[in-house]
Structure formats: C-alpha cells, structure tokens
Amino acid sequence: MNRRELMQAVLLGSAAGSLAAQEARGMELWVHPARGDDRAAGTKAAPLKTLAEAARRVNQSDGPGPVTVYLSEGIYSIGETTLLRPERRRLSKDARLTIRAEILPDDPEWDTGRMPTLIHTMPLPEEWHGRRDPAGGAANGMLVETNHVTIRGLKFLGYPLVETPKLGQIRRLYAVSRLAEGLEDLEISQCIFLGDDHTNPMHVAAIVKGDGARVHHCVFRGSKITVVYWTGGSHGHSFTHNCCDAIYGSAVWTCGIRNDFDFRYNVVSGCNYVWTWQPASWARAVQQGQPVPDTIRTEEMISYRVSNCHFAGNRRLFGSGVGARQRYADLDPSWLKLEPTQITAEPVPVEKDQTRRNYLHPAEGSEAARIGAGLFLSRG
After folding, report:
1. Has residue 197 been placed in a domain?
2. What is the pLDDT of residues 114-141, one digit of tens each?
3. 223 and which of 73, 170, 202, 321 could share a cystine (Cβ 3.0–4.6 Å)?
4. Residue 380 lies inside a defined structural domain of this protein
C-alpha cells in the first residue's frame, strides 16, 4: 500500500468511526417551557418550547440511532395530542425513542419540584379510537404509534373539566395511549400520574394495546384507573414497583392478557378495586361498539400470579368491568395467586411533606415502605 492509499484508508476509517459514533449517539432534542422557542434548533442552548413541536421533529427524522427528548423542569400546557410516529426512523430495543426528564429521581440533585409537569388543556375531540365517542368525547395526551418507546421521569396531571356534566356522559383523558394492536415494547417508568375526580380527572393513566408494555417505579394517585392492558392474548406485560393510592376505579385493568403478566412489588392502598379483569371477547365487543356478553366462558378464565405486594384498605380485591362506565362486579379473588402478599384493612400512611424525596410514597417505617415501590430505582 502506497502513501496515498494509506491516507485514504485512514480517512475512510476515521469517517466510518465518526459516523458510527454519531449513529450511536443518535438524535437529541431539548425542550424548556419558559425560555424555549419552537423556531429554535432544539439544542440544550436553544431549546424548543413545546413537546408537540419536539414530536413533530422526531416524526420527520430518519436514519438509525436512538432519539432522546429531554424535558427541563417547568409546567407544560399540552394543547394538542403528542403524536409519536417516526415512520422513517429505525428504532430498536437498544436504539429507542425516549421522552424523559432532564433530571431523574435517582439523581442527587433531584427533588419533586424538578419534575416536568404536563397539564392537559387540549380541546376534547368528539371522536376517539377511530369512531364517534358515545360517552361524550375523549383525549389522548401522548399517542404512541411506534415500537421501542420509553417515557421516564414525568409528572402527568389530569384534565381540568367536569367528567360527567350530563347523565350518560363520561368525558375522558388517557394520559398515555397506544391504540394499535401490532405494536410492542413500551416502557413507562419513574413517572407520577395525579388526578382528582372533582377538579382534574384522569380517566386512565395509560391504555395500551399490543405486546410488551412495562410499567414500573411509578406513583399513581387519584386517577380512575392506572393502566389498561387492552389486547386479549397479548404477552410480555409487567406492572412492578408501583404505588397506587386512592384510585377510584381500579389499580390495574387487564383484558384477557396472557398469564405471563409480571405483577410484583406493588403497593395498592385505599382503592375501589385492586384489579379489574375482563375476557378478551368483552374487550373486543367494547372496542367494536357491540353488546357485551352476559357471561364469562370457562375457557376464557385466566389466573395471574401476584408476588411481594402490599394491599391495604381497598374496597374490593378482584372484579370484572365493562367499558368507560366500568360496570363493576365482584369476581372470585382466588383467581389471583398471592405468593406472598400482605392484605390489611387500614390504608397505607402516605408521606405528605413536599420537601421530602419520598413525597406521595408510603411513609418511612411503614410495612408498605419496605416493598421498595415508588420512583427510585435505587433504594440507597
């Protein structure tokens, strides 16, 4: 090899290495609700203002490598659905689309005031999930239409409306929605979902179709339902290390998903139902606007394992439900295999001091606090 050929080889190798490093680093966008500008470059020094604009830029991007959207602390008015649909981006399990807080709970500089706070202010559409909504309208906060997505470290507030202004109406917010059957690999972690049925109701924190929805280390308080796993026969789901307090519907809702569901290390306190279940055939009927069968077929009954959880002061353990209006009915709790799980009559004491890192978690020293549920991946 002569000198020229050697120099060309070195330059090509350097270019290839640079390209590989760029692909590994991927695309980054920064958002700041106070000093951002949606005409800006989207860098940390020149951030965007809205999550919606960040999503549009993600959707328009192409090429390989991960995508990370960083949200700085502050209050974000969500005036339109955040649609995540990067059709030309090659995402994978290791090269994900991540929407995350700049500072995460395990960072020593974190406190509860540093969480990006999303409050939903968009108009309420009359259609939901592709058809006119008979219950009065519903809104999606984030609508996920791609695989390999992580949502991490955010605080979601409900929708400041009256949920039932007229008899028969149930106007609803789904803070995170994934409504396509063929999708997989969604992770929601270290997030807080807060609602109040009188001032800012949150109908469902996350409603998910498809496979592989993993929800862990989150705090849910005051919503109607935490997570709905909505595809019968789907697999790879989990709900672990979560705190569910004062949920006035049910702390988890499963629609005939497979019994590989990983449900462990959760604290569920002061809720209406711990678990709502419905057969896959019921879920399909609701989604298609058809009448729901009156009975549960024996072949559709599924038993699930519950391990290392703490259930305290809940009205009921296990029941069935139908549609937005729930229509709850008790079911035999022996369908749940409790291995081991503590059940007590009194609700869990919750930390109310906002200056403490464990704000809205089980109070220190309580039996429930030993479970390790809540925002922190590290218990140190």
Report:
1. yes
2. 999 999 999 998 888 888 888 889 999 9
3. 202
4. no
